[in-house]
What we know:
Elements: H1 2-11, E1 39-45, H2 48-56, E2 61-69, H3 78-81, E3 89-96, H4 103-112, E4 121-122, E5 125-126, E6 132-136, H5 139-154, E7 165-168, E8 173-174, H6 182-185, H7 190-206
Parallel strand pairs: 6-7
Antiparallel strand pairs: 1-3, 1-6, 2-3, 2-8, 4-5
Helix pairs in contact: 2-7, 4-5
Amino acid sequence: MLLTLITLINLQTCISSTPPTNRENAIWTPPETEQTGLEKAYFASGCFWCVEAIYESVKGVHEVYSGYAGGQTKNPNYNQIGTGRTGHAEAVEVIYDPKIVSFSTLVQVFFGSHDPTTPNRQGPDIGSQYRSIAFYQTNQEREIIQNYIELLEKENIFDKEIVTEVTKLDVFYFAEEYHQDYEKRNPNNPYVRSVSIPRLRKFQSLYPELLKDTH
């Protein structure tokens, strides 16, 4: 009975069935591509499988990579992240065209696609690795994030206090290759079907004007 319960819990949380690899032997970096005129933004709002899929649906976004940020452990791997002791959160790197989508809009996507009032938790995923963080690289980005939080609080968009961390990006570590495009590559994964896809569809229904034209 206990084993069945544990199995059901694991099916509903952001846990990969792929055995974790030794980071030192399997450091992954994305292939080099032409990025002239493109910029990067970084966010953490729960399971990176979900967040990656959401941002990849936004027009003006060229690519999104899953990774780790916000902690103190160097070159962390997925197994270490899962302990909650590395300080890192599951995060994404968003590569976007500022001529099509602004950083302000990406911040809107961030707050519009998760619950920023739950400390160290997002949906069924619990732990500091799932906390809400809006990373900034410049003072202008920091002001945009803080101003948007003030607007959300002024208009009482959320019933509870926003606990999102506004943090200067130190370093972003790319997650292992099997995490990249995870939702797209594993559509029948129980977590993807029960959590990731519904979360994506909810975002898409709320912000149809921000979506890429799929026709």
